[in-house]
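User: Hey, quick favor. My workstation is busy. Could you predict this chain's structure for me?
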Amino acid sequence: MQVLAMPKQPTELPPSEVIPDAKLERRSRRVFSSEYKLRILNEADQCEHGELGPLLRRESLYSNQLQQWRREFAEGGLAGLDKSAPGPKARLTAEQKEIERLKLQNQRLQKKLAVAEGCLELQKKALWMLDHLNELLSNVVYAGQAATFADASPCRSPSLNSTSLTTCSSWSNPMIRRQPLRALRSS
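Assistant: No problem, here it is.
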């Protein structure tokens, strides 16, 4: 296999020094002093028909800037021209925003608390019903024998509570459920 040499010799590259161009630099937002604004407003008021356009082009301004400056001058005088901050005014202060955020968080937590309290009430009612059912069934006699419902259960718990409900597997046995109901029907 034959390796071919490159026919052209590599050329020297000029040094890669970057010279910033002022025209390509990012411009910052222009800030106008109140004296400049007042001077431009006076010149705009003295302009005849057709002279306002060249004034705006010469100063690199827009007509809406003149309208805003006139409105600010009419509302606040010379002090009104100083305030011209860009962007919309803040609707709420930082403290008011924090208060709103905390109010929303409080409402969310109140809803979660209401749900949790509802679940607890439901659990209390279900436990009460199971305890009440246990008391009723403990008085039932099975086929002539004096056996309580707790004695018939493989769990051998004297009363139903939250631990016996979770540990007892006999609740799925249909015979244990049916026996007390038959005994209730026969009495």
